[in-house]
Design a protein that fits this description.
Layout: H1 2-5, H2 26-41
Length: 66
């Protein structure tokens, strides 16, 4: 969130004069937080970041994933 908010002029600012865009509404920041909570839940932490891959990574032994 800190990285996103470093570009504050591009995102939600209740007192700002920025044009309305898909990322300038408060709902976008709420969505980003909710998404991080969903990823975090699966590994039992409050927040996490997910990544998209073009193919499923191969794993020979599930015990290597700890």
């Amino acid at each position: 969130m800190e990285a996103i908010l470093a570009f504050r002029s591009q995102f939600y600012d209740p007192g700002g004069q920025a044009p309305n865009t898909p990322i300038s509404g408060k709902d976008f920041l709420d969505f980003m937080e909710a998404k991080a909570r969903v990823f975090g839940r699966s590994i039992q932490v409050p927040f996490a970041e997910g990544f998209n891959v073009s193919r499923t990574p191969g794993v020979r032994d599930l015990f290597d994933l700890d």
